[in-house]
């Protein structure tokens, strides 16, 4: 059963701008509005994964948070549960919508970001850092190879936005 | 007609289901199943629901949104639905229109709330052309600055649902079960329910709204009427719904927390 994380609606959604200059050197600035980080892998459903040794951290991208609007509620799995590549593991609520979050890779949930209970707006203000959602122990690290790198994902976002 | 034949006509196929007076809990459970378990496009129209019920969004908290004491006293059912958005009280005067679409069926729409909302407003512009001062205002359908239609959505990887509760008319006394929401659209200002809302009945006949809505949908989809036994479809135990009816115990516990001071009690404003 999913862990329901009730959230305050008081967090101010800070919009990420591609014109920010105080970002880390590892940041790739895309030509579109949203930012994309080097060193992460990206799913076509706009989640990112950071693989460090035996742990992978997962969240949603700046592109996703920008398009979703202010996040007011997050529903995440419990630790000990499992997630499967391309399948939903939780949801965010923004504006009037609940939106599924899909896992880029499979694994066991070993940690959940409890800060999102009171401050779901972290997903908007810091999608790649404080707004991380879950940490997992990957069960099939080879799945990472089918994900996009930063350049490819940047192009993917641009093409997706241009086609609508 | 097969899907390939429909596509040759340039419009994707959409199943059209019409109900009258179906309980809102049952309607929402059907919609949740169709979103998750079907690969077809669906339009569901429910002309009124049988008894008054309160419907909250996924993250709705009774203590923040409801006058729980009155709700318990009068035994008003409270449903938490699977989509986002705010709280409404629905009854025979509410007309529900739901669209469940494959992402590929409406390729110009990105699977995000604002994009879907904008597309829906274009559809309803066709319905209300020349009628009132209709517009999408923030996330509500309004005549002028009075809301008559509330929207909510749920978005999956390949599909989305956009459903609307339209106020044909409403009972003023029912609004007393709802607190003023802490999260409200800017255009609402500080208006109470009576000053903020309006009913469609002052603008067009009920049957005309439904027929115009079907007409507008048919401009975009090839509709196929479907007769559905909703009891048969929703009675199975194979699917675990997110949509649920809150129990009396849950409401009582929420009220107890409110009284203990855990949650601030807001003043009732009519």
From TrEMBL, chain A:
Residues 55-137 form the Lipoyl-binding domain. Its main location: mitochondrion. Its cofactor is (R)-lipoate. Keywords: Lipoyl, Mitochondrion, Transit peptide. Binds 1 lipoyl cofactor covalently. It comes from the Eukaryota. It is found in: Mitochondrion. The keyword Flavoprotein does not apply. Belongs to the GcvH family. The glycine cleavage system catalyzes the degradation of glycine. The H protein shuttles the methylamine group of glycine from the P protein to the T protein. The glycine cleavage system is composed of four proteins: P, T, L and H. HAMAP family: GcvH (MF_00272). This is Glycine cleavage system H protein. The lineage of its organism: Eukaryota, Viridiplantae, Streptophyta, Embryophyta, Tracheophyta.
Automatic annotation (TrEMBL), chain B:
Gene3D superfamilies: Bira Bifunctional Protein, Domain 2. SUPFAM superfamilies: Class II aaRS and biotin synthetases (SSF55681). Residues 39-225 form the BPL/LPL catalytic domain. PROSITE patterns: BPL_LPL_CATALYTIC. CDD domains: LplA. Pfam families: LplA-B_cat. It comes from the Eukaryota. This is BPL/LPL catalytic domain-containing protein. It comes from Escallonia rubra. The lineage of its organism: Eukaryota, Viridiplantae, Streptophyta, Embryophyta, Tracheophyta.
């Amino acid at each position: 059963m999913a862990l329901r994380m009730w959230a305050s609606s008081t967090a101010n959604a800070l919009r990420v701008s591609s014109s920010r200059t105080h970002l880390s050197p590892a940041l790739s600035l895309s030509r579109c509005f949203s930012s994309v980080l080097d060193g992460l892998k990206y799913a076509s459903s706009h989640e990112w994964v950071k693989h460090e040794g035996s742990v992978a951290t997962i969240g949603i991208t700046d592109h996703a948070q920008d398009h979703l609007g202010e996040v007011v509620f997050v529903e995440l799995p419990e630790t000990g549960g499992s997630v499967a590549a391309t399948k939903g593991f939780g949801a965010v609520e923004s504006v009037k919508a609940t939106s599924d979050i899909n896992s880029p890779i499979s694994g066991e949930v070993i940690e959940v970001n409890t800060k999102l209970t009171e401050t779901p707006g972290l997903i908007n203000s810091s999608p790649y850092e404080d707004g991380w959602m879950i940490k997992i122990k990957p069960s099939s690290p080879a799945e990472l190879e089918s994900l996009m790198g930063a350049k490819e994902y940047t192009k993917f976002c641009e093409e997706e936005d241009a086609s609508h | 007609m097969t899907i390939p034949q429909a596509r040759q006509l340039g419009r994707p196929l959409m199943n059209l289901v019409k109900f009258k007076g179906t309980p809102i809990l049952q309607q929402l459970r059907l919609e949740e199943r169709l979103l998750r378990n079907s690969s077809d496009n669906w339009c569901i129209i429910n002309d009124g629901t049988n008894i008054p019920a309160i419907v909250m969004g996924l993250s709705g908290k009774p203590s923040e949104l409801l006058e729980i004491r009155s709700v318990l006293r009068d035994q008003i059912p409270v449903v938490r639905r699977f989509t986002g958005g705010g709280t409404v009280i629905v009854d025979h005067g509410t007309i529900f229109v739901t669209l469940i679409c494959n992402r590929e069926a409406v390729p110009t729409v990105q699977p995000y709330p604002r994009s879907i909302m904008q597309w829906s407003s274009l559809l309803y512009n066709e319905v209300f052309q020349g009628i009132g001062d209709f517009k999408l205002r923030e996330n509500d359908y309004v005549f002028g600055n009075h809301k008559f239609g509330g929207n909510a959505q749920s978005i999956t990887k390949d599909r989305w649902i956009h459903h609307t509760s339209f106020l044909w008319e409403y009972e003023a006394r029912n609004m007393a079960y709802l607190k003023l929401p802490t999260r409200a659209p800017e255009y609402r200002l500080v208006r109470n329910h009576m000053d903020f809302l309006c009913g469609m009945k002052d603008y067009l006949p009920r049957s005309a709204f439904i027929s115009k809505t079907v007409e507008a949908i048919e401009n975009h989809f090839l509709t196929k009427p479907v007769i559905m036994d909703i009891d048969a479809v929703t009675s199975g135990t194979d699917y675990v719904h997110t949509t649920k009816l809150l129990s009396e115990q849950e409401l009582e516990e929420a009220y107890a927390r409110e009284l203990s001071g855990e949650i601030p009690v807001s003043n009732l404003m009519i």
